Amino acid sequence: MLTLNFTKFPNLETERLILREHKLSDADILFAMRTNETVMKYIDRERPKDLLEIKTFITAFNEGFEKGDNLAWVIALKENPEHMIGSIGYWRTDYANHRAEIGYMLDPNYWRKGITAEALIKTIAFGFEEMNLHTIKANINTGNNASRKMLVKHGFVKEAYFKQDYYFRGQFLDSEIYRLLNPNH
């Protein structure tokens, strides 16, 4: 069975980015992103009510890492590593089947600059090489063409289309599931 036993949080680097652990000092920016309807348009989750809720969320993220339940990074530019511009990570880890779901979000000021793609490449490599995942899964809102294109560009294949499979804000919504298999398995 898959286990995530990292003794310390695995910070990652790319050419332009630092992927680091969430800090409570990120709360203001994360709150702004998670209450921004442009950012959250296709992320069908309730919006946080206040900063305390976000701080609790960050603490839960970090505790989830310590328990081996999830692994989520802040995306920051190398030139300003303390300033969060997005997040990317794994959750809903299915240990028995060596699968985890990946998700990401980015401040709209940084869209269309290749930042999500750069973070995704590094995160996928880490998932396969360090976490020993067999499958990386992504669950997207069917209207999210940008995310669909991003996933397909990086080798993900549509695995399923679910009609009205979840309820959010008074309506049943469809979702698409994409998967990427570890090429080394």
UniProtKB/TrEMBL annotation:
Q: Which residues form the N-acetyltransferase domain?
A: 17-174
Q: Which Pfam families match?
A: Acetyltransf_3
Q: What is this protein called?
A: GNAT family N-acetyltransferase
- Record organism: Pedobacter ginsengiterrae
